[in-house]
Amino acid sequence: MCCDLKRRFLLLYATQKGQAKAIAEEIWHQAGAHGLEADMHCMSEMDKYDLETEKDPVVIVISTTGTGDPPDTARKFVKKIQDTTLPLDHFAHLQYGLLGLGDSEYTFFCNGGKTVDRRLQELGAQHFYDTGLADDCVGLELVVDPWIDGLWLALKEAFLLQKEKEGMSSLVNAVSSSLSASPHVVHELNLSSEVQSLKLEDGVRSSDVLTQKLVDINLVASTRDTEPSLVHSVPPVSQSALNIPALPPEYIEVQFHDTHSENPHLSSLISEGTTFEVPVTKAVQLTTEDAIKTALLLELDIADTVFDYQPGDAFCVICPNNVNEVEELLHILGLSEKAEYFVSVKVKQGTKKKGATHPQHIPERSTLKFILTWCLEIRAVPKKAFLRALVECTSDVGEKRRLQELCSRQGASDYTRFIRDSNVCLLDLLHAFPSCKPSLNLLIEHLPKLQARSYSASSSNLYQPGKLCFVFNIVEFPACPSRPVSRKGVCTGWLAELVAPLLHSSKTTMDTKQESTSIAKISIFAHPNNTFHLPADPSVPFIMVGPGTGISPFIGFLQHRQKLREEHTDWEFGETWLFFGCRHQDRDYLFKQLRCFLDNGTLTHLKVCFSRDSSTAEVAQPKYVQDVIRLYAKEVARVLLRERGYFYVCGDKKHMADGVSDAIVDILSKEMEADKLEAMKILAMLREAKRYLQDVWS
């Protein structure tokens, strides 16, 4: 398309952790090479665009957060378009293409994108390009890359149609001739994440993608190098010409100042709400030393704050990166001596990056060590754009080639296997590719914000006023070929180290005064759950399923229910069921005091199972909670269908929650004498009515 025919389209993104923004920036960058101009805005910047008067095509990239919610940056937009007074032809003038990002580990896959897509359709908007749904579970790029490749022809066809409607026949002929000269691209693609066989026809290549000719680097693979690894490739990748992404433009400028000042308070890093610094008053290890996982219970003192919560709510803990990893990174970057220097960050003058702004998660002034400790997620799995930027910082020819392969189209499976699935981070890459020496500004540009970690409350403010408890497993990442060192989770590892003195004191006879002098404090902020709460009517029965640390919120449920029963003896209370499971009864049965709730009537039915304990019984005992649930099919169906009760699931998504929902479908099918499809519809209705609720993680 000739430059004088350069056409504009509106590009909107809504992101929670930066993925959607990065993809939108890639689209913006590629647009210029296709003779198009992308007018890019965050969906929250509603003063900078107006869909009600928009005449050009609109491209939307939107992620999903929580249990299927649109990201925070899309909330105003979604609220606006969900106005029920809008006429059904409100967006009849609008043509758009939408790319949704999600994770199929969660029930409401890509629901943020689906919500916007569905509502725009209801209001009369038309697709000019098929909706893409990218799955982070298998790799976003499996859908994102071909979706972007097909976008350009779809946009040009949309412009062509637009001009035809305007009756500009001469321009139509000019554009048609340019299109006829273009390679054919398959337009109507099924972009569901379940279809992984997407391939562009041979010879199709986006014009912004650099063709990296195979460099003869005189590397002869030895007989032992027949298998690929993080640092080594094999044919066909090692012998291919590579399609690598365009180099992202630099946009950050960093200056060091050898001055003395105060680092900002942690509360200034959080925009989600009020931050509270609270003491940890109790720490208990709930598992034995020989348990496979180590579970800790921490008690926080919130008595001197206005922090409030309900059982079932979550809250976030502001955590730092591991101090040893920060020191190691400083050493590799050659910046150890400047660790305590203050850093000022500003946008580079004349940068080619569209809409470049000062990263909100980087303070205006703070020390280098503060930035690497509290602001940047140095454990993040590097995106391909970051790998592409690292290529330019690598001097060794062989290392440079391998980094090019890992960010290329041809090396997609290697990227997934050796970086994404292996949880490789920047430090691992710098060890694997020692000639790579990135600048600090590159890290600030490409490393995402260090996110606060969310935990479910395991207590009731009614039962324990002024206290907030939570339970977690210390996350372990064992060593693997791509990452030769084992690591603990960023937050759980830090918390475990922080409360080690308290854990020690709980096992010994330490006097109270000595204990109080070393009380640890952590910063938290509320992250309320709008739905995962007890039924408003106490007479409604409910069932809880929470194996392992998934039992955490249900301890708060039961504490709350017990207190209500004590205070309101005239109320009617519905029956309560709890299905709990763990590996070994004597090692990781986290709350053996559950029987107390059973004895005082708070809990009506307690059903437990132990997946790794051997049984001497003639009939094999059920190993998992979903197996136990099937044994009580009639009771479960009665609670859900006849008594309109609630069903709560908390814990691991992939290995438990999916199995539980399958069990419920089977139960509904059997007890209602309906086929499986009908049972699945009933379960969907229960979800929609907020009577089948999940708080799960992958």
UniProtKB/TrEMBL annotation:
Reactions catalysed according to its record: 2 cob(II)alamin + A + 2 H2O + 2 H(+) = 2 aquacob(III)alamin + AH2
Alphabetical UniProt keywords: Amino-acid biosynthesis, Cytoplasm, FAD, Flavoprotein, FMN, Methionine biosynthesis, NADP, Oxidoreductase, Phosphoprotein, S-adenosyl-L-methionine
Chief place of localization: cytoplasm
Organism field: Bucorvus abyssinicus (Northern ground-hornbill)
Subunit relationships: Forms a multiprotein complex with MMACHC, MMADHC and MTR.
Entry GO CC: cytosol
Localization per Swiss-Prot or TrEMBL: Cytoplasm
EC number, UniProt record: 1.16.1.8
Entries under InterPro entries matching the protein: CysJ-like_FAD-binding, FAD-bd_FR_type, Flavdoxin-like, Flavodoxin/NO_synth, Flavoprot_Pyr_Nucl_cyt_Rdtase, Flavoprotein-like_sf, FNR_nucleotide-bd, NADPH_Cyt_P450_Rdtase_alpha
Residue span, Flavodoxin-like domain: 9-152
Cofactor requirements of the protein: FMN; FAD
GO MF, one example: [methionine synthase] reductase (NADPH) activity
Gene: Mtrr
Residues annotated as domain FAD-binding FR-type: 273-535
Protein name: Methionine synthase reductase
Gene3D superfamilies the UniProt entry points to: 3.40.50.360, NADPH-cytochrome p450 Reductase, Chain A, domain 3, Nucleotide-binding domain of ferredoxin-NADP reductase (FNR) module, Translation factors
Gene Ontology terms: biological process: cobalamin metabolic process; folic acid metabolic process; homocysteine metabolic process; methionine biosynthetic process
